[in-house]
Every structure is written in C-alpha cells, then in structure tokens.
Specification:
585 residues, alpha/beta, TIM Barrel, five-stranded parallel sheet, two-stranded antiparallel ribbon, 20 helices, disordered N terminus, transmembrane
C-alpha cells in the first residue's frame, strides 16, 4: 500500500487493486493515483504536524488503563485478563487509525478545490473554427436577424429587475423561512389613476386625458400591429426553411453535443471531486422549482385517495353538489356512482398520467376526473362549486405544507381563466383570500385554454373580442384603480406569468394569416390558428405590463406551451412572442 507523506502525517491511500481488496474501508474513499499525487502535494505544502491522538482518545485510554488495573486487582483468571487487555488495545488501535483516516481525507478534500483551481479543466480546441465560408456567413446573418426580431417583441422593463431597490420586508404570519416583500393578503397601497383604456382591433391602448400634466410618459401601446407580426413570422419561417440554415444549425448542434461529451470524458472525475468540496449542498438540499404543475393535479394519486376517504369518513352528509334540481351530499354522490370508500383505490381513481396519454390530449384531460366522473372533479378539484372550493383549498394547503417541510422544493402551479365570464377573476381571487392560500414555496401562473370555438358553439360567447374582454378588462381595471377589485389586487402579487394551452395535435388550418378578421369580427367555431390567438394574448399582456410598470406594480411573463405535439407549428410564434416558453422537445 502506498503512503504519501505530508509532514509527519501519512495518507494511507491504496495504489493497487490488491491493496484495495485488503483495505475495503480505505478503498471506498480512494482517489485515482493522479489525483492522489496532486492532493498529497497540496496537503504536504499546507499541513502542519499534529498529534496522533485527540483529547477524547487520551481520556479513553486513561479510563481503559484504570479499568485494567481494577480488573488486575480482582481475583480473575490471568488468561481472561490478557484477552481483555488485547481487545482494548485492538479497539484503541482501530479507533486511532479511523481518526487518522478521517482527518487525512478531510484535509485532502479541503485541498481538492485549490488543486482543481490551479490545474483547471482539460479543453479541446478546434482550429480554424472562425473561418467561415460565404454560405455560412449568410446563414449567420439570417440567424442574427431572427434574434433581432425576437428582441423587438420581447418586453423589457425600463428599469431592469436587478437595478430596482430591494423593497422593505413586511411582517407576515404566512411566511416560514424568508418573508416576502409584501403581505400576501394586503395589496400595495396604490391610489386610482386618470388613465383611460380601450380596445382597438383587439389590442388594448392606454392613455391619459388630454389635459393631464403627466401625459408625456403615459401612453402604452403594443410594439407592433398584427400585420407587422405576420410579416415577421413569415421571416422567421423563411429562416427555418432555408436549406443552408438547416445544415449549418444541424452541424453546429452536433458539434456542441460532441464537445460536451468530450468534456465529460476528460473532466468527469474533476467535476465530481469539485462537487464534493461544496459544503452542505447535494441533490436533496439544493433549490428545485417545478415549473409545470397543474393546480388540479398538484397532489399525487395516493394523497388524493387518502383525502377523499377522509372526507367520506368525516363529512358524509355535507351538501356538495346540485344535480337535476336535487342537492347531493358527499355520500349521496358516491351512492349515485355505485361506489363506497372500501371500493376506492389508486387504480380505480385512474388519475395517473402514464404512457397511454402520450400524444393523446383527450386521455390526458380525462385523468383530471377521478373515476372518470366529472362530478367528482367538480366536488374535489374545482374552486367554483357549491362548497366554494373548500376541499380543493384544504388539499392545496396540505401540499404547500409538505413543500414547507421539504424546504428546498418550489412549484409554479397553473390555474385556469377560461374567458367565458367577466367574473372569473373575482371568483378566483375570492377563493385565494377566503381560504388564505399562500406559501413561500409557490408562485402561480394563469393558463388560458384556447377553446373559443367550443364556447362560441355553446352560445357562451358572441365573438373573440368578448373573450379578450373577459380576460383583460378586469386586469386593466384593477391596475387603474385597485379599489374596483381589492381581492384581485392582492392575489396578483403571487402571479408571475401567463400560459396558453390546448391540444396541439389538432391540425392547424393553412390560411393566409393576413386575411383573418380582427377579434370583434371573429364569429366562428372553426379552429383558430395558434399564431392568431397567441398574438392577441401577447399584445394585450405587453400593454398590461407597461401599464403596471408605470403604476409601480409587478409584471407578468408570457410562457405558453409549445411543441407538445411533434411537428407543431406553435414554436415559430412563441419564438417571437414568448418571454420563455414551455418546450417539450
């Protein structure tokens, strides 16, 4: 066995397979010979001579010697005394060796960081990489133009987030670890403003009255018209379909992949050792954020099953549903389904998304209904029902409490605003405030289903403009005067973004986007093109963010789903319009 010396300290690291077999404890902590040489050299330069034993070991030895003397004074057999003394000596020797090994390894791992910093990672350089042909230079110009188009439509606050002064923290009984810079149930004190807003061709415009003294900086308008958006979208499509662009991007992506694989081959051990030197951090106590959680499915299937059984046991006579003019209790709902608490199991609930839901949006939606019954979804997983979403609030608080105990896990649940009624925002805000839904570990996104065709066919909406009114008018009203929707004003502090979602496998109509009518004139149940719907959500959200920034309120990101269905055309629109999109490539 090799021994590396650092002062008077020996480092018993194994150097051969035979030695590792004879020293299994040390072999588990052994480094490669190359790293042993580097680390031992660093430790030898920094280490100082230390005692071979600790005060605890000395005290243990004194006690053992005293015990031996007591044993020797007693009338015992000499052979037993010798065996006991030998066992104590052996245990003392093992304890000393273990202490020396741990001290040496600890000193070595503390030196790994400086060794890696001095040595650096190995790199592979490609010669003449910057020598481009005329064809490649043309492709690079196309890619730069595409990036410039994205920057044109990207909403950037006038004052970047990192440059804003940190707000003072408020005392809040809802916070556990780090209090937020706001009270979750008391909005910022902002008075009414004299801004005026109205829709023009489906896009909100905000301005001040003609005689207002602050008129110079108050106008909020989208960065472009729908016609400009379609032309820029066609430019992006042309870049994507260019043969030279496809070849260049494919080769570039392959090169980056191979470079990463080469880096892992050369520096895998160095990165592993560097990771070991980071104190108090591993996979389990590093911050993790799940950005794709639907609120109605934020609990696991076992948690939901346990909750349903508990409610059947404790609240069987609670009126929860109205069907055909009759009020049904919770027990009555299950009786109408021919089920009892004993019949329920994880398999019968059937709410787990498995391989059968891949590329099947219809099956995926059915997973939100326990037992495949919409009435159970309405009772347990809806905020707007006869019990005002009390069951969903209770199970949501249980999930948030679990996150608080975990401490290092965070989520961004999505809640739906459909745009069918103007009061949807107020109902959602009332649910938040009544049940005091808040956690330091959760921020919320609003998802807007692209279901105008179904709503129009059912007679719920008259035009696409009415849907935009239901979605955005309450947001502009509460931004102008928080007193109009006080509960919504407080809840919007927890909202960080907007999302759009629907079945992307439905074939998109191949039409000239410039020929489509504006939202007030869109009165059809036909499939609405994804690019058309995305633009009007994006444009109104852009104006809303500019308005809220002027009012000193938080802004929202636009993060739509994209690419859930293979060969979808949605990423082309989201490349321009989204702040950051949820991609499923």
């Amino acid at each position: 066995m090799d021994r590396f010396h650092g002062g008077n300290v020996e480092f018993p690291w194994t150097a051969s397979a035979e030695a590792e077999d004879t020293q299994p404890v040390l072999a588990r902590h052994a480094l490669s010979p190359h790293w042993r040489r580097l680390v031992s050299a660093q430790v030898a330069a920094d280490s100082q001579t230390q005692s071979a034993s600790t005060p605890a070991d000395v005290a243990t030895n004194v006690e053992n010697e005293a015990e031996l003397k007591d044993d020797a004074s007693s009338p015992r057999d000499d052979v037993q005394l010798q065996h006991r003394a030998a066992a104590i000596d052996e245990s003392t020797r093992i304890a000393l060796e273990t202490f020396e090994t741990r001290r040496a390894l600890g000193q070595a791992f503390r030196s790994i960081g400086s060794v890696i910093a001095e040595r650096g990672f190995q790199r592979v350089c490609v010669t003449n990489e910057l020598v481009l042909t005329a064809e490649e230079q043309r492709v690079c110009a196309l890619l730069r133009s595409a990036i410039a188009l994205r920057e044109k439509y990207l909403y950037l606050p006038k004052v970047p987030e990192f440059a804003r002064p940190a707000p003072s923290y408020r005392a809040c009984d809802m916070s556990i670890h780090v209090p937020p810079p706001y009270d979750p149930f008391r909005g910022p004190e902002v008075g009414p403003s004299s801004h005026m807003f109205s829709f023009r061709d489906g896009i909100m415009e905000v301005s001040l009255p003609a005689g207002d003294a602050t008129r110079g900086h108050a106008s909020c308008m989208a960065p472009g018209t729908y016609a400009d958006y379609v032309r820029d979208l066609n430019t992006i499509t042309g870049v994507m379909n260019d043969p030279d662009s496809r070849s260049f991007c494919y080769k570039r992506l392959q090169l980056l992949t191979l470079r990463f694989q080469m880096h892992m081959l050369l520096n895998d051990e160095a990165e592993r050792l560097e990771q070991m030197t980071v104190p108090h951090r591993d996979f389990y106590n590093v911050r993790k954020v799940d950005t794709h959680i639907h609120h109605s499915s934020c609990m696991n299937q076992k948690h939901l099953l346990r909750f349903i059984k508990k409610k059947l046991k404790t609240e069987p006579n609670t009126p929860v549903l109205e069907r055909d003019g009759r009020i049904l209790t919770l027990a009555g709902v299950f009786e109408s389904l021919g089920m009892t608490a004993y019949d329920l199991s994880v398999d019968t609930l059937d709410v787990h998304a498995d391989k059968r839901t891949v590329q099947r949006f219809d099956r995926f939606n059915n997973k939100y209904s326990p037992l495949g019954e919409s009435r159970l979804r309405e009772v347990f997983l809806k905020t707007d029902n006869r019990i005002e979403g009390r069951y969903l609030a209770e199970i949501t608080r249980e999930v948030l409490d679990d996150l608080s105990e975990n401490k290092y896990a965070h989520i961004e649940p999505r809640m739906s605003i459909y745009g069918k009624k103007r009061c949807e925002w107020d109902l959602l805000a009332r649910w938040f405030t009544k049940h005091r839904i808040y956690s330091d570990h959760a921020r919320w996104l609003i998802q807007i289903p692209r279901l105008f065709g179904a709503y129009y066919q059912a007679g719920l909406l008259d035009s696409f403009q009415e849907m935009l009114d239901n979605i955005f008018l309450p947001l502009f009203e509460v931004t102008q005067d928080p007193a109009t929707h006080p509960e919504l004003h407080t809840v919007l502090q927890q909202v960080v973004g907007f999302d759009t979602v629907d079945d992307e496998s439905v074939p998109q109509p191949r039409v000239d986007l410039l020929t489509l009518p504006p939202p007030p004139q869109w009165r059809s149940a036909a499939v609405m093109p994804y690019a058309y719907f995305t633009f009007y959500i994006y444009a109104n959200l852009w104006v809303l963010n500019a308005f809220r920034e002027q009012r000193g309120l938080n802004q929202f990101r636009f993060r739509p789903h994209a690419g859930e269905a293979w060969r979808s055309r949605s990423p082309r629109s989201d490349f321009i319009a989204s702040t950051r999109h949820q991609s499923w490539y």
